[in-house]
Amino acid sequence: MSEHPDKSLIFDMLDQLKEINLPISLKLIMHSDQGCHYQWADYQNELKALNYVQSMSRKGNCLDNAPIESFFSLMKRECLKRQVINNIENLIQVTNEYVEWFNHERISCKLKGMTPIEYRNHTLAS
């Protein structure tokens, strides 16, 4: 998270993806909106180097963003609406804690009773 959607924010995210070490054989999709920072040539080149397919939402088609919109809805209900957030640092801390909990502890019926990380690892092992 950042106060501004600048290059460092975008490339820090890509650096975090490199740390996950997903198999290169997977056809991974990086989905985003049509913001200008996702149209930069160096961003697109980095995605290609990581073997990611770039996908951007079409204007007026909310279904493109359905998975992340669903996540944000859960995050608002389960976390953000239950706390007072006073500043960007507090928002970053609360968000990071929620994402960590969501990925590593929160089980989901849609994921066969597993956490997202457990489900990903199970799927990769299959």
TrEMBL record:
<feature type="domain" description="Integrase catalytic">
    <location>
        <begin position="1"/>
        <end position="124"/>
    </location>
</feature>
<dbReference type="InterPro" id="IPR001584">
    <property type="entry name" value="Integrase_cat-core"/>
</dbReference>
<dbReference type="InterPro" id="IPR050900">
    <property type="entry name" value="Transposase_IS3/IS150/IS904"/>
</dbReference>
<dbReference type="InterPro" id="IPR036397">
    <property type="entry name" value="RNaseH_sf"/>
</dbReference>
<protein>
    <submittedName>
        <fullName>DNA integrase</fullName>
    </submittedName>
</protein>
<dbReference type="GO" id="GO:0003676">
    <property type="term" value="F:nucleic acid binding"/>
</dbReference>
<dbReference type="GO" id="GO:0015074">
    <property type="term" value="P:DNA integration"/>
</dbReference>
<dbReference type="InterPro" id="IPR012337">
    <property type="entry name" value="RNaseH-like_sf"/>
</dbReference>
<dbReference type="Pfam" id="PF13333">
    <property type="entry name" value="rve_2"/>
</dbReference>
